[in-house]
Amino acid sequence: MPSFLKHLRWADWLILTVLVGAAAYVGMRLEGTLNYEWRWHLIPDYILRYREDRQEWFANLLLQGLFATLRICIYAGILAAIFGTILGVARCARNLTVRMLARTYLELLRNIPPVVIIFIFFFFLSQQLIDALNMNAWARGIARSDSAGVWEFFFGDMRRFPSLISGVLVLGLFQAAFVGEIVRAGIQSIPRGQREAARAIGMSGFQEMRYIIMPQALSKVVPPMANQFISLIKDSSIISLISVQELTYKTVELVASTRMIFEAWITTAAFYFVLCFGLSLLFRRLENRD
Amino acid sequence: MTQTPVIVADAIGKSFGDFAALTDVSLSVHQSERVVVCGPSGSGKSTLIRCFNGLENHDAGTLTVDGVALSQDAPEIRQLRQDVGMVFQQFNLFPHLTVLENLMIGPLKVRKLDRAAAEATARKYLERVRIPEQADKRPAQLSGGQQQRVAIARALCMEPRVMLFDEPTSALDPEMIGEVLDVMVELAQTGMTMVVVTHEMGFARKVADRMVFMEAGRIVEISPPDTFFTAPQTDRARVFLDQILEH
Ligand SMILES: Nc1ncnc2c1ncn2[C@@H]1O[C@H](COP(=O)(O)OP(=O)(O)OP(=O)(O)O)[C@@H](O)[C@H]1O
Ligand SMILES: [Mg+2]
Q1: For residues A77 and A31, what is the distance between their CA atoms, to the nearest angstrom?
Q2: Does residue B61 sit in helix, strand or coil?
């Protein structure tokens, strides 16, 4: 008997029994009442598929979706880090207008449901930007050009480029608010004496921030920022609502065309879990190292 | 040498909300003069010298430092701060920089010297405070006494005309007080204008030209050290001296 079983008390057994019972019930309903036919063997093909005619492997729906999610999260993460840092600094500014603007942004994002925000950003901001820059035509041009391969490595299917940009913008601006709070907390955790010492040698407000406060604050905010990045990956599934073709969107597509409801969603859940949990283990290890 | 004082405070006041931290304070400090400020805790000593480099803004009276009249937001304040060095009780070294970088950052970024000149300045003053061998360490790796000497060197790197010290030895273990005071005595001997808030009466006796005694936000007595320590003019100064000289 494994040693941990010896530590189980009657309450633990009760909880475990209830859980097993619930799982068995769901299983029975699927098997019996719904007459669900499991087709797990088809799932690998929707991840990675071998094309007989061309004799090569290619990423199918789910893996395409995963790559798209990764790309979007990396770009949105960079955008959120930059804009969030600006917001955080603005929250600590001496100028009242600047402080109020940053505060307003944060409170709006904090008190409106994410789905609503995503739609508002999408229609009011990224759509307008994409139209204004005539990005659709530009991206289609790239897709037809010779250098399409390089572009596709970074941005995926170039015909979908505007949609990717929407996703990155919307997600990045959304996460920036929370990054801003992290940065603000970091700045405010630096003792007052540091600012006074900087001012006492004649530094300007900007120099004080740039050379004294920010270097110290940023090294303090690395761990919470890493956690925020994991949140960003999870939140990224929400942009499937604005038709950005990332993992969740691709899963919806897959389910619609194959009816493999449970297999597809369980696989996608596993992708997200492995990605996020893996990153959180990695960050924890990096953090403990120094 | 001009005879205009470096610091002229004329009836200055400073309030925090309802609380008057300074009331009607007048004091002039001349070139090469050493003024030691003492008084009980909360009497406004720190507030006074922090006004001298604009870390606090006085809200009554006039204050002229190095020929510049300080006001709420004098644009000259940054220029002025380069001429007025300050040493804090808690050192306030920059923990993310090495000792040498702590000393160089002012000359580089504020005085806009080139790297070679900034480093030469830094090493010169590190030598002056007798810890040239610690140049590449982080502040956290130094003892308190060494950290405070680095802080003094950092201020000196701006080549100031006046040095302000706010209880530079109060945060130190007793065995490290001497090394910091030695550096300050040497500095006094070079003719630096100094305003020092301290309770180190031995140091005061040795270097002070004038003693300033404060209580409850006012200057109660200004006398030469001989008079101040042997025959203080006010009862309150006498009581204060009895208390701290007992130890
Ligand atoms: N930023 C501030 N806000 C409110 N009150 C303040 C502030 N700074 C100082 N004070 C008050 O002003 C008074 C004088 O403070 P100050 O620090 O100048 O005294 P001090 O003589 O230096 O005392 P100590 O010997 O304890 O350093 C104190 O009562 C203090 O509580
Ligand atoms: Mg004080």
Answers
A1: 42
A2: strand
A202 near B CB under 8 A: yes
Distance in angstroms (rounded) separating the CA atoms of residues A108 and A137: 34
For B82-131, write each residue's pLDDT tens digit: 899 999 999 999 999 999 999 999 999 999 999 999 999 999 999 999 99
Coil vs helix vs strand at A135: helix
Residue nearest to atom 28 of ligand 1 (CA): B42
List the end-to-end C-alpha distance of chain B, in Å, as a whole number.
41
Q: Which residues in chain A touch residue B55, judged by CB atoms under 8 angstroms apart?
A: 196, 199-200
Consecutive sets of 10 residues in chain B, 247 residues long: mean pLDDT of each? Answer: 79 93 94 94 94 91 88 76 94 96 95 94 94 94 95 95 95 93 94 94 92 94 92 90 79
Whether A189 has its CB under 8 Å from any CB of chain B: the answer is no
The structure tokens listed for A112 are 């409106």
Burial class (CB in 10 A: 0-12, 13-18, 19+), A250: buried
Q: Dump pLDDT digits (tens) for A180-225.
A: 999 999 999 999 999 999 999 999 989 999 999 999 998 899 899 9
Q: How many CB atoms lie within 10 A of CB B142?
A: 18
- Region of A54 (left: φ > 0; alpha: ψ -120 to 50; beta: rest) is alpha
- Edge-to-edge order in the sheet of strand B68-69: B19-29, B7-16, B60-65, B68-69
Q: What ipTM was predicted for this assembly?
A: 0.92
| Angle subtended by helix axes A135-144 and A161-188, to nearest 10 | 120
Q: Are B111 and B126 in contact (CB under 8 A)?
A: no
* Ligand (nearest to CA of B45): 1
For A169, B68, B197, the CA distances from B34, given in Å and listed in that order, are: 61, 21, 11
CA A244 to chain CA mean position, Å = 13
SS3 B191: coil
